[in-house]
What does this fold into?
Amino acid sequence: MGVLASGRGSNLQALIDAGQKSDFPAEVVLVLSDKKNSYALERASIAGLRHRHLAPKEEGFYLKLGDEIENCEIDLICCAGFMRILPPEFVSRFPGKIINIHPSLLPSFPGLHAQKKALDAGVTVTGCTVHFVDEGVDTGPIILQAAVPVLPHDDEVTLSERILGYEHRIYPLAVRLIAEGSVHCVDGVVQYSGNAHQEGSGFISPVSE
Ligand code: GAR
It folds into this structure.
């Protein structure tokens, strides 16, 4: 995996940790960030992973980003809190190979401040989604979702923390499903093979634990 991150990198860490387990079928080999001082780069450094900051203001930013990824022979690009909309030329360079995590049950509440939008809307259930990336903002075929309750006294911080705990579970799980070949995209909709669909899966759907 190559991971694109802009901030604290807790989802990156979840992917690094998963990849270090002997039975996990993928590992992080490259971390790229558009923010020089992002903690994600620090995490990559601590884990001894190849990492690089690329300045988004420089010409050819997405070209360089793509070249870095190609040079490392990456099979899967994971956006983990990468706060940029990938342009069509980047997305089409890696068809079906880019995934993203978002802190809502998409297609509800795309874009920034998804948790606040959920609170403002008064929903009682929200969650997180891993999806393939297309040219839209937090759109693209949905791979995995976890539903998370909104509790009466939640604020943006408490709700975000609760969702984040599930993000750290479903992102590695989605990568596992893809790496094992259980995920197929048919006419823009994800279908599963193997044991990805199980009855009584509770809050995470589908489940392969
Ligand atoms: C996560 O909550 C992720 O879902 C969100 O940014 C946060 C990054 O946290 N991403 C988006 O909102 C994408 N639209 P992290 O840096 O600790 O992984």
Notes: The radius of gyration is 16 Å. Residues 156-179 form the longest helix (24 residues). The mean pLDDT is 93. Residues 5, 7-11, 80-81, 101-103, 114, 138, 164, 167 surround glycinamide ribonucleotide (CB under 6 Å).
